[in-house]
Structures
1.
Amino acid sequence: MCLLRVEQVTKRYAAHTALDDVSLEVPRGAVYGLLGPNGAGKTTLIRIINRITAPDSGRVFFDGRPLAPDDIYRIGYLPEERGLYKKMRVGEQALYFAQLKGLSKREATERLRAWFEKFGIAEWWDRKVEELSKGMAQKIQFIITVLHRPALLIFDEPFSGFDPINANLLKNEILALRDSGATVIFSTHNMSSVEEICDHITLIDRSRNVLSGAVGEIRRRYGESVFRIDFAGDPAALSQQELQPYCSVLGIKRGAPYHTAEVRLVSPDAVRPLIGLLNERTELHGFSEVIPGMNDIFIRAVNGQLEQTDHE
C-alpha cells in the first residue's frame, strides 16, 4: 500500500502551468526520487504535499485518506532554500522547532542530544547559529527535519554543499530512516545519488509526469540491447560479417589479458546463437548487458528521446 498518492494534480500561476495533470504513488517504506530539470514543477508539488499551497484541481491522499491539516505533523520537510535564525543559539533553536512539531521540551532535548552526538556536533549546542559553517548548519536542519520521527520525509537537494564524507553520512542516515519504517521523497538533480539510494522515481518535465517506476526496472526497460563481451584470442575473429546475423559491433578495445567488445543485438533471441559463435571463435570470459545509468535516461527523457510507448 502506498503512503502518498497524488491524483491528477494541476496548478497554475497566472499564465504559467506549474503542474499539469500529475499523478504518482509513493510506496510505504521506500526512498522515492522526484526528478526533473529546474522549473519542471517539483518544488510546486512538494509545496502542495506540505499544504503550503493548494492544487487548482486533483487530489492528494495521505495514508489512505485525503490529505488533512494535521498531517503536517507526520511530515518532515527539508527545503532547498534553508534558513536558521542566526542570532539564536543552536540548541535553543533546535528545541524551538522540535516543540513546533509537537515534542515536549524534555523529549526534544533527549532526542537532540543523541543526534548531536551522532553527528559529532555536541559542543556546538550553546554556540550561535551565525558561527556555524554551511555544512554544520545543514546538519542541524537535517536533525530538526527528522527529529519528530515523521512517517513521510521530504528532502530537497539534501546533499547540496556537503563534502563527500558528510554527503555519505547523510545518505546512510536516510537509508537507516527508510529501514526503520519512514517513507522518503528525495528531490535531486544528482543522478548518481538516485542510483545509490532511490527505490522508485518519478521524472517531471515541463510540468508533466513523463516517467515513473522502480529504478532497476526503468534502467532495464531503457536498455538498448547493448552487451559487453570479454574475450581472449584474435579480435579479428569478431568480424562484422560473421556477427551480422546476431548483432552489430559498436567497438573493440584491445587489452591484456582480455579484449573487450560492445555489440548491439538485433533481437533478444540472438543471445544464445551469439554466445555459441563466440565460444567457437574466441576464449569467452564474460558476456553481460550494459544497463544505462539514470543520468543517460534523464537526459534522453528531457530531450524527448524516449519512446512514448515506454512511458505507459
Note: Residues 73 and 101 are 6 Å apart (CA to CA).
2.
Amino acid sequence: MLIDNYGRPWLKLRIVVNSVCNYRCIFCHFEGQGKFLSRELSAEDIGFVTSVAKDLGVDDFKITGGEPLLRKDIVKVVDEISRIGPKDLSLTTNGYFLDIYAEDLLSHGLRRLNISLHSLDRRKYSFITGVDALNKVLENIDYVSKLGFRQIKLNVVALRGLNTNEIPMMIRFAAKYGFVLQLIELMPMGEGFPVFARYYDDLSDIINWLNKHGKLLGTRKDLHNRPLYEVDGVRVEIVKNYNNPTFCAGCTTMRLTSDGKLKTCLYKEPVVDLWPYIRTRDREGLMKAMIYANSLRKPNFVEGSSGDLSRIRIKVRIGNLVY
C-alpha cells in the first residue's frame, strides 16, 4: 500500500473511461479533465493499469465519465477490471442506458451502481441535466433494482433553491428500493464554476435536518471522512468537499483520465502521463510513474484556507418558476 507525504493511503482509483456525455448538466466538473479528448484508453489498456494499481495496494475501482455507458465496449471494460479480482468495482451513470447494459455489466463483475438523480420533478430534472429523460431514468431505476446489484446509490448534487427542498422526497424514494442516498456539495469546477454562487449550498441546513430526523452513524474513514446518517432506514452519505480540510485529510483516491493520465486531485494539477508506459505495456515503468504520482498528492484544502464565493448571480426560468 502506498502512503503519501500526508499519511493518506492510496486505496481507490476513479477511472474516466470516456470524455463524452449525452447530458449537459449545469454543474458538471467532468472529473477534472477536458471534453472530447482525442485519445481514449482501450479496455485492455484499462485492464493493464488496474492490474498494476492492484499490485500497489489499490483494490477499489470506480468507472465514470463522461457517461460511461456511451462506450460500446463498456462490458469489456468491466470484464477487464473484474479479472484482476478487485475488492470493489462500481460504476457511476446518469441511468439513461441502464436498460441496455445493466444485466451484462452485473454478469461480468460489476457489483455496485451510482445513479445520478438530481430531482424528482420533471421540469427541474430537465433544467439541471439538459435532457427531458426523468421518466425513462425512473423506469430504468425500477428495472435495475430487481437485478441483484450489491448496492445502488442515488447521487444528488445539492443546488440551493432548486432541489434542496426535495431531500425528504428523495429519502422516501431511496427507502422504496433500499438504496443509499448520497448528497453532494456543488463544486466550483468546470460547468459548476459560473453557477457556483447562484446554486452553492454548504449543506448546513440539510445536515441540521438529518440530525433532527435521523441519526449520525459515524464517518467513512476510507473515503474523505464522509459523515453517514440514517433516516427512516435509509443510509445518507454527505460529500462535503469544498473548503473542507477534513474531507481532504481523508482522501484515498486518484483519477485515471480517459487519455491515460493520473490526476492526484480533482481540483489541481499536476498530472502524471501514464500513456508511454501503457502503450508499451511497461509494467515496471507504470508502477514507478504511479509511485511518483502518489508522492505528489497533497490536500487541496487545509486548515485556515477560505473559499471565494463571489460570482455573478444568475436567474433562470423553469416554466412559470424563477430561480
Note: The two ends are 47 Å apart (CA to CA).
